[in-house]
Amino acid sequence: MKLKLHHINLATEKVEEMTRFYRDVLDMPVPTQDIPVLEKKKGYAGDVGFVWDGAVQLHLAEKDVMAGFRTGQIVNPVARGHIAYRCDDIAAFKRELEVKGVPYSDWGDRAVAGWHQIFFYDPDGNVIEVHQRKDA
């Protein structure tokens, strides 16, 4: 099972302003591939801006402290943001977390169409996402 850094998510109340800042000041364009298709009717309806450095995306997501409650999930990835890795075998990764005693929230495809996402905390309370594209 392989993990690769995919994106960093910053939760913000200023999606447009933040997106403009990263595009204009840091010269980060909109990704040309693999832009997530948001599932706005499954629990998170916030706006998201997308930029990237050519390898890693930055998702500028509208802060939503209630998304976890609406989806029945303990881990809320859009309250404070998160770091995200793509994997090639989400089932194997979940088994590995279970063996290691790391609890996680399985969001399935509630936030992004075609992605199976899980979220969990590191020892300091930072949210980590691991996802797999369903077509992979």
Automatic annotation (TrEMBL):
Gene3D superfamilies: 2,3-Dihydroxybiphenyl 1,2-Dioxygenase, domain 1 (3.10.180.10)
Name by which UniProt lists this protein: VOC family protein
Span of domain VOC: 4-133
Database matches in InterPro entries: Glyas_Bleomycin-R_OHBP_Dase, Glyas_Fos-R_dOase_dom, GlyoxalaseI/FosfomycinResist, VOC_core
PANTHER family: GLYOXALASE FAMILY PROTEIN
SUPFAM superfamilies in alphabetical order: Glyoxalase/Bleomycin resistance protein/Dihydroxybiphenyl dioxygenase
Pfam families: Glyoxalase (PF00903)
